[in-house]
Structures are given as structure tokens and as C-alpha cells.
Amino acid sequence: MSVRARIEDALIGKGYGRHEGALLSTLVAIAATSRKRYPRHNVTGDLKRDRVAFTRFLDDECESLWGSERFLEIHMPMIDPGHEEPSIERRPFAEIAYRVLRNPLVHSGTLGTTARFDAHDTGGLRLEWDSGANAFTFNAACLDALISLVVVASENASVFSDWLESGVMSVPVDVSILVGIQINAAISTQVADRQGAMGQFTQRISYNLRLSEQARSRCRRSSGK
Hints:
Strand order of the largest sheet: 3-5-4
Number of helices: 10
Largest sheet: 3 strands, mixed
Number of domains: 2
Structural class: alpha+beta
Radius of gyration: 19 Å
Strand content: 5-15%
Number of strands: 7
Helix content: 40-55%
Distance between the termini: 31 Å
């Protein structure tokens, strides 16, 4: 499986409301891309550690996420309520992504108590400590930004060349796989009418790439435009 497969998984999960699964696939793609940039055989010291490579990659790509010369730090008084830590008012987003998003999903299969995905917030980028929920809160725009970050990383230029050219991420989806044996009558009829065989019918899930102007310029340079 490839970085592209993980991002396609993320887009499909996002399209069907499986946001934690989409986030996990995206974080796996980020980890894999960080190792393309910082391969173990070619780095020394702390960069041999997965955590350091992951957070360094996100720090590198702040421009793609937030815009020129911006390094995002977020007020977050705690990472894990079960472990005491020195009080820190502001934490780098890369640390939050690794410890608050990646670690619980990888080790527990779900987001921890100090992270919350707001599926109802369909507005602009939201990354903040919600004191009412006592959790780091993020929305779909944040997930979109992380997906786009992987797509525009220079190490993945050949992997996503078609998406970079069009500015649209488009994934073919086999309906029979997505809905399994519980496929409803309307879809079944549509499949029969259009293809004559359920397994051959596909649709597409598409999203526009979410890019800062700096990242758009980099894509234009990469494509020779």
C-alpha cells in the first residue's frame, strides 16, 4: 500500500462520515511522508525517532497549512488528564497532532478524552482548546488541511501529479464495497440499469485541494505553470 492509498482511504472515510478513520489514514500518510523526507539511513540523532521525524515534517510544512511564516501554537493546558505534566500554556500544533491525535488513534483505536472532532462545524479552519468540553477541538477544515499537506509535499509530487494538475482530489468508489450486502433497492436498481452487474458500478468522491497561496505557488512551479 502507498501514501496515495492512505489518502484515498481518508477521502472515502471523510465522504461517509467516518472522520476518525479518515484522520488515522491521514496521520499514517503524514508519518510515511516524514520518513521519505527524513529516512532513517540518512539522518542522525533524534531524527531517527518516528516522533521527531513526524513533528519536524509538520513544522516544515506550516506554510502549506497556515500561510507564510506562521508557526501555529495552541493554548492547551493538558495532553493526558491521567498523567501530570508541567503546566504549559501553548503547545506547537505538531506536538498536539502526534500526542493528542495520532497516539490515541494508533494505540486505542479512538480519540482520547482531550480531543474532539466537531462534525457540525463546517466553517473555516478551527483548532482550539474548548474549555467547556475540556478538549482540543478541530473541524473538517483541519482534516482537509492535513490531507492537502500530504498531497503537496515535494516528496509526493509524482504520487499525486494528476491531483496537483487539476487541483481536485478524486477517488473512484465501488458502491457494492461501500454498502456491502445491505445495499438498498434504489442503488441496486440504479446499478442494474447502468451496468448490469452490481460490482461494476462506481461513483467518485471529489474534494478541492485546500491550499495556502504559498502552497498553490509551489504546485504551479512543480507543474511548470
